[in-house]
């Protein structure tokens, strides 16, 4: 999709049923358009699994603030941003964070 310098999207104005119809006479004028963000279902399920991991870690380490657990999960997860195989990534992240939290003394 083309955009103008002000962020305005240049998309063809078509009505339902006219998509791909070159005879409609539409020249593809520029107008403001809402661009929806596509959410990858795999990424979404990975995020849900990480959220569940945070909940399990919170139950396992009740003395650690949930914000600290979430930060550690996010930091560890970012280390695997370039991983091609992501099937077991939430489990791996949860285990690494659990090992880290078990080693770190809790401030009283």
Q: What's the gist of this structure?
A:
44% of the residues lie in helices and 4% in strands. The chain is built from three helices and two strands, in the order E-E-H-H-H. The protein has helices at residues 41-60, 66-78, 89-103, and strands at residues 2-3, 9-10.
Set down the secondary structure blueprint.
Blueprint: E1 2-3, E2 9-10, H1 41-60, H2 66-78, H3 89-103
Low-pLDDT stretches are 18-24
| Sheet/helix structural class | mainly alpha
Share of β-strand residues: under 5%
Number of strands: 2
Strand line-up across the major sheet: 1-2
Number of helices: 3
Q: What count of structural domains?
A: 2
Overall pLDDT metric? 77
Q: Report the order of strands and helices.
A: EEHHH
Shape: globular
Ends apart, CA distance between termini: 55 Å
Radius of gyration over C-alpha positions, nearest whole angstrom:
23 Å
Q: What composes the largest sheet?
A: 2 strands, antiparallel
Fraction of residues in helices?
A: 40-55%
Can you characterise this structure?
With 108 residues, the protein is mostly helical. The chain has 2 domains: 1-36, no CATH class; 41-103. 44% of the residues lie in helices and 4% in strands. The chain has a two-stranded antiparallel sheet with strand order 1-2. A hairpin with a 5-residue loop joins strand 1 (2-3) and strand 2 (9-10). The protein is globular.
């Amino acid at each position: 999709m083309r955009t103008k310098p002000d962020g305005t999207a240049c998309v063809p104005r078509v009505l339902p049923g006219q998509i791909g119809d070159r005879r409609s006479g539409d020249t593809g004028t520029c107008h403001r358009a809402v661009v929806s963000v596509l959410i990858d279902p795999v990424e979404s399920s990975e995020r849900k699994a990480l959220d569940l991991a945070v909940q399990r870690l919170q139950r396992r380490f009740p003395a650690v603030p949930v914000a600290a657990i979430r930060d550690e999960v996010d930091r560890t997860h970012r280390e695997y941003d370039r991983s091609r195989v992501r099937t077991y990534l939430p489990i791996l992240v949860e285990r690494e964070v659990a090992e880290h939290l078990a080693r770190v003394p809790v401030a009283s």
